What we know:
mainly beta; seven-stranded antiparallel beta sheet; four-stranded antiparallel beta sheet
Amino acid sequence: xxxxxxxxxxxxxxxxxxxxxxxxxxxxxxxxxxxxxxxxxxxxxxxxxxxxxxxxxxxxxxxxxxxxxxxxxxxxxxxxxxxxxxxxxxxxxxxxxxxxxxxxxxxxxxxxxxxxxxxxxxxxxxxxxxxxxxxxxxxxxxxxxxxxxxxxxxxxxxxxxxxxxxxxxxxxxxxxxxxxxxxxxxxxxxxxxxxxxxxxxxxxxxxxxxxxxxxxxxxxxxxxxxxxxxxxxxxxxxxxxx
Length: 242
């Protein structure tokens, strides 16, 4: 009898733990992993970060599996220009993307030879040291690195291969109400609002990227345990995302 009660108590504890974890994930913080290089030099492949779910309020995309329990957003707040956000890809409302908010509702956005214009004003950028990283073939690639200053004063780093790449010219568009224009910091290696993503509805916002809780070099071999400490990017742990 005591063994049966002990087993039932264990099951209850596991269920309670799962429910609490789901509640935290839904209402407060959710972990995400960076799978691609579209946000270099801000976020690296192999970074793990926490996203605050409460920052912009809640939509169905705040729920596990985007369960359609309600429409629109509740306790809604708007993102600020320059914030790094996670959102659901508008074409399937399922895949998580992470980009930077560049254009707000009502803004006019265009790019000409790699230079960003917001509401007709050229966005300031200052070139700094080059950024070097390895591509999928293991070869080193050198990028021009800039500090970009958005309207409102937010500064962040961006990368450019050159100012004459495929997405470096973009005809001016006006962002509809309830929509946002997102761009990756790795400007010539990002599928964002210039390409397939398009405008992002406010309902698709999942949360604001806050800080890294882990980071490791995915180039290192996982099957060599003695290399695991070397894989960890210790200097990036608990970095705030700007």
